[in-house]
Amino acid sequence: MKNKLIIMLAVTLLSACANKPEHVTPFEEDISVAEYQIGNADQLYISVWQNPELSLAVSVRPDGQISMPLIGDIQAKDLAPEALSKNIAKKLNKYIRSPNVTVIVTAANSAIYTNRIRITGAVNNPLSIPFYKDITVLDLVLEAGGLTEFANADDAILYRKTPSGIESYPVYIHEILDNGSLETNYELRPSDILIIPESVF
Questions:
Q1: DSSP secondary-structure letter at 64?
Q2: Computed from CA positions of residues 8, 14, 19, 25, in that sequence, does the dihedral angle turn out positive or negative?
């Protein structure tokens, strides 16, 4: 069950990099990876409960701000969605009673997000790091402190965003470690997510 949840979150996370979807869908990241911070060019949907005239879709401007009815400009860059929700609610409190605000990231377009790679699941230190040239699957596993004793290393999956959608590639880490196989020791690309599932006993 946990493995399925991690995979679902990874796919949703990658989907957030794509163009704005028809329906508003928040992206989510595995809890072990650092909380997302809003960046320039990110697409947001701001919902103000029972006040549809204040709810809107916005893009974070190059100056890191967004504009909203009643309150004007407000800083969004470098804030978590929850923090931005609270700041907006605080400003709206001057105009409406007890505003209930939700901020949803519908497309994560900032370079801070798209230029990172991630590994999660059965590793000692799940992490998100800046992409650098020539990094491979094995490099990322080592950056994460190696596999845990519960890792199912031959069922790892690499998720990658491509122009045609999200692609998945099997990764056989034991083959890489034990036999020096390079077949699935892929060179990584920005936004790649490597998931190491746990063994099911």
A1: S
A2: positive
At 115, the pLDDT band (50, 70, 90 cuts) reads confident
Please name the helix (run of DSSP H) or strand (run of DSSP E) that holds residue 196, with its range, or none. strand 193-196
Which residue, 60, 91, 107, sits at the end of a domain?
107
**Per-position DSSP letters for 126-191, written without gaps between them:** -EEEE--TT-BHHHHHHHTT-B-TTB-GGGEEEEEEETTEEEEEEE-HHHHHHH---TT-PBP-TT
What six digits make up the tokens of 178?
């034990």
Q: Is 39 in contact with 114 (CB distance < 8 Å)?
A: no
Residues 117 and 192 occupy one common structural domain? yes
| Token duo for residue 120 | 């999660």
pLDDT, tens digit, for every residue of 127-185? 989 999 999 999 999 999 999 999 998 899 999 988 888 899 999 999 998 888 999 99
Residue ranges making up the domain that contains 43? 37-107
Using DSSP's 3-state secondary structure scheme, residue 41 falls into coil
